[in-house]
């Protein structure tokens, strides 16, 4: 009953075995092997256009270097006020991009387009004292389990285009969002105006597989230097490539995400039907936020369940009753039905 | 016949299988799992004192964050003029440490203590215009296959202590150096006055396993923030831990280095005995530098051998004859006797 | 009728003449002249304790280097959401300190202590993902003309002490605040727990005279390197010293601030008594925020008045009527009664 | 008898009086005043083409921001191994540009073109590990008093053009070099292929007047943000403009440099004719390097002379006899004949 985070899971067996298989033999280092090239080409297929791909070690690296690649002095990157980049990356995006992250509010973890417009308008061109708007980043799926609908991405993107701001998408849970929307990778990204993507594999069944995908390869010219200077170029890069190779084979990545989301659906159904717990807000990815009785939480923990208590959002101070807590439950490719059902039975008890 | 670099090898089977085994099950993320803790403790055993250990993604990261952790504004880090940190890391150590790398010459890839003393003396304390000496870094084994003897490390260390400069060791080929010296990890590091070590596993049989080892844990307090801000904290950190676990089990790491050095010895013997090739300089680790006939190089390449032609050192412009080339040959845990013998026979042909 | 900003004024005649006088003769460069030393010593007298003083070129430099001097990796500096450091310095404090500025709200331009406590509480010690609270900065007088009372500084300071966070004061209008409070420099700073001060002279009658004052000289050891590396060490530093020398002579600085505040009082009285304009909020320094009729603003501008229209604070969207505008009026040492009266008569017309 | 440095002088009376005159009245801040605009336009006249001009506080700032403006990740800036940027600016150029300064040798303080070519050749395009050549900077006049002839600048410039590297000139003693070459500002800069210039006024009679001159204004678009973020935008910018205004009036700047160089000529003649001292090497600007008897140095100091003993260049260890010292003598606009003659008489004694 591990719902603490999807990164508490290990690696999917197919991916782990693909790594074992890759362990033999020799290959050129630093991302120049045949396997590296072949897997990079697969990204172009998946996204239905030529893209540039850069493997890095962590999701924080993917976000930080993506944002670094589009920055200019005095720059400001707009993100949701609860986004991972601003809340959970220890200032790495600020450090690498030398830009300030400026938080924008919005319901359900999504940037409110009107608020974004207003925030950007506070930075007229050439107003040197204020600094300048230089990028926007959205998280898909969001930190609180919701997913931008395609037209919601369009709304953000339109604002970016008007001011010629590059749009980055943090896709640490990219596959889960695709499943939730039943959209194609292209439809959810460059067809909506996304310029650069953090494509995450780690949370969805890899050991360590993160990639920066740049949709306009002309704009990726600096990235190989940015990555190397950031100490993110693996010598045995093919071990990342091998993971992605297995991940993308036969749609495994979508299958794993579908499983994770399905387990979350099972949680959502169970909690929705419960008398003793309720959903804090509606989510569609592999994260579920629930309000449960403290005693039920204690029971679950005693039985080995792992999950995080979540801070009450300041906008809804009365969300949670006196004997209740707000918790986050994250499912993954490795979550089993019995874990879900076991947890649900703890709530009922 | 792959002698291009030790990072062209894959992973040793024991390590790859340990990874496969670790793929199942759940564990706490971000370096807090039991396995992470246990492997960190193994480092203290190996070094015969309590140490702080930080896993990172690349050797460049280990060097860069090590140097960052001991820097102060206006700082200067002294390194050998051919060191990896200054020659092959795209400015990453400068970027993370915000210090200048200042090259010091010395024969056979090793910093000359007299030249180091003189270089440091150019930076008296509080001479704000010049900047200030803040660190020294040595590479063990060096970039050109040599190894600092223990008393050579003592000589560097004594200079550092006099000016209270922290001494860092880039141990990308740490195990190969240990084997070459027949020394213990403690003897080659903190007992000699080394303060911080980049402990490399990748070149010696891991997929991706690098660690920063801080010998005085009191001085490691900032490192967890430095690492996270550098986007180098793995979520599934235990996969690094698992590699190190297998690497350290039953002295596997030493065995692999012994094998690599032994294969280099075989190369050295063969070349030393050859009429048609000669050693460019004496080495004792897993790197061999040889002067061979151009035609022999061509023959070897035609038969599938991989190696790099090396630039002629500016101090010895006449090292190489008109029909000759200088080449670097690197052996690894995966090099086989038949590769060595096959290559030697190409030279003779 | 120049009320655009106090930095539109020139230099007070005594200061300008002191500069002329200093132009002859030779003296040691880079802040080592007798005059530099003597003026630095005057700061210790004025603050009634030994302090370390560092002259820099701009108020932005004073703030940025102050904050840089107390930073650690992953750090977060808390400031008011409208503070100059976050709103008007083009990211310089972020750039030099490599810390994120995190905005905290509060009425009348002052940080709300309860909100500060809550904001800091979001960063428990060693929570590496979030980053960590490392500094607090307040502006005295604030960007909107108000002044922290001494006990209001105490309240902020107490929060800082509890978490051992250094407290910085941006004193670009330090003298105006002193006059408003009728407090001594010591009372308004280190006796309240302020650790480091940006002491501004430029807005109050100097050409270019800004100083960083560190109240605990032990903590100033890195500053000379931080300053030089930031390209802020003047070769002919004594010209900054000379300005401060004249500025501090016979209490000139307090006299100039008293004059500026007095002119603001005259504006406040006039506007308070007016039928056609009103004060937007109460201020006590040399800044006045008024709501006037658009037509009156037009009249004043036609007669040569200079002032800035100010954005309506989001907390009070109904502050200004349909035919009105919110304006900022700043007085200085050079403002004359006839300017004030001339402006007031425009409002009435 | 102050020969310590030209920045020990004060300000020329015309410049100091122009500052006094500017002290009255009001003007728009942050470089937008009529005077700022007018003085910027004078630079275009002086350089015989449209240029972009940015005032900054120090020569170190001019160099650092110039180099920052042309950098890309992993960049390397080539400079002479004794250049001010690498030897005397506490790492500021490295800090602001995030590029490494790579020293190139050359006789008489000037980069040797052949060595520069070879150094750059070590960084082939796209060799991500090494980093990449991104800029070249030369100092005119050099740190040791020599001056690049126009065709020597051409030789450096040709190398830059071949690799499309921007060429920066550190003109802290720009006027002294112009006088030495009897060249026009245009002839010594953009007509030779210089792209960006640090134009120094401080050492030649101003209090504090340094400017970055960008010869292709299209390439200056980022500079206003770079400058503001570096805390180098003066609020009362017109006080820099006023200094330059007086400096450039009626050729004052050339007259002052001619005087300084003339006083150096007088020193050179006297030392050349002396039996007890000799020139260490030939210089043509306002710096003179002489070998004198230790006793003569002592005598001169006892009589109040100020000068710096200079380190013996490592290329010429036998330059100085056992009872001799190498000294640097710098003249300025404020040096008088009697100072020179007084010093010469000390040498003879």
TrEMBL record, chains A, B, C, D:
Documented EC number(s): 4.1.2.48
Residue ranges constituting the Aromatic amino acid beta-eliminating lyase/threonine aldolase domain according to the UniProt record: 3-282
Short name of one Pfam family: Beta_elim_lyase
Keyword vocabulary terms for this entry: Lyase, Pyridoxal phosphate
Gene Ontology annotations of biological process type: L-threonine catabolic process
Gene Ontology MF annotations: threonine aldolase activity
SUPFAM superfamilies: PLP-dependent transferases
Cofactors that this protein relies on: pyridoxal 5'-phosphate
Signal peptide range in chain numbering: none
Recorded superkingdom: Bacteria
Catalytic reaction equation(s): L-threonine = acetaldehyde + glycine; L-allo-threonine = acetaldehyde + glycine
Subunit organization: Homotetramer.
Job of this protein: Catalyzes the cleavage of L-allo-threonine and L-threonine to glycine and acetaldehyde.
Family label: Belongs to the threonine aldolase family.
Name of the protein in question: L-threonine aldolase
């Amino acid at each position: 009953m591990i719902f603490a985070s999807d990164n508490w899971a290990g690696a999917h067996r197919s991916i782990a075995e693909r790594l074992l298989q890759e362990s033999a033999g020799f290959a050129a280092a630093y991302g120049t092997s045949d396997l590296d090239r072949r897997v990079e080409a697969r990204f172009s297929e998946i996204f239905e256009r030529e893209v540039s791909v850069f493997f890095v070690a962590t999701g924080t690296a993917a976000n930080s270097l993506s944002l670094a690649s589009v920055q200019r002095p005095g720059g400001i990157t707009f993100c949701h006020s609860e986004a991972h980049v601003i809340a959970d990356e220890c200032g790495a995006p600020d450090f690498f991009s030398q830009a300030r992250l400026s938080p924008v509010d919005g319901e359900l973890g999504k940037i409110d387009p009107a608020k974004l417009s207003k925030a950007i308008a506070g930075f007229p061109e050439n107003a040197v004292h204020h600094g300048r708007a230089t990028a926007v980043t959205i998280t898909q799926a969001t930190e609180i389990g919701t997913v931008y609908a395609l037209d919601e991405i369009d709304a953000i993107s339109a604002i970016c285009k008007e001011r010629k701001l590059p749009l980055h998408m943090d896709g640490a849970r990219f596959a889960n969002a695709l499943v939730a929307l039943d959209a194609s990778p292209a439809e959810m990204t460059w067809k909506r105006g996304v310029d650069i993507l953090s494509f995450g594999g780690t949370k969805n069944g890899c050991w360590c597989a993160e990639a920066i995908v740049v949709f306009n390869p002309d704009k990726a010219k600096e990235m190989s230097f940015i990555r190397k200077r950031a100490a993110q170029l693996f010598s045995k890069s093919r071990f990342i490539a091998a993971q992605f190779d297995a991940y993308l084979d036969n749609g495994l990545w979508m299958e794993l995400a579908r499983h994770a989301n399905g387990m979350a659906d099972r949680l959502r159904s169970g909690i929705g039907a419960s008398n003793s717990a309720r959903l804090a807000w509606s989510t569609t990815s592999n994260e579920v936020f629930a309000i449960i009785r403290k005693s039920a939480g204690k029971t679950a923990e005693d039985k080995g369940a792992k999950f995080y208590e979540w801070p009450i959002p300041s906008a809804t101070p009365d969300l949670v009753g006196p004997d209740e807590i707000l918790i986050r439950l994250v499912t993954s490719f490795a979550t089993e039905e019995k874990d879900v059902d076991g947890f649900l039975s703890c709530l009922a008890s």
